[in-house]
Specification:
This protein is an all-alpha fold. The chain has 2 helices and no strands.
């Protein structure tokens, strides 16, 4: 019986996340903040691009 590699990867990632949270909560909070800042920056860039498209692509 083959093990689904996606399930194994998710399990390993979850264990690592719990390990980081338990051993160093401040660093875990920093990782979460960096992740949300990245998502925010990406959403801002997409919004700017869509605005540029709506304005006819003028510079």
């Amino acid at each position: 019986m083959a093990v689904n590699s996606k399930k194994v990867a998710i399990y390993v990632l979850a264990v690592f996340a719990f390990y980081v949270i338990i051993t160093d909560p401040a660093k875990a909070a920093d990782y979460v903040q960096v992740g949300f800042e990245g998502i925010s920056d990406a959403a801002q860039a997409i919004g700017d691009f869509m605005t540029w498209i709506a304005n006819g692509g003028d510079s």
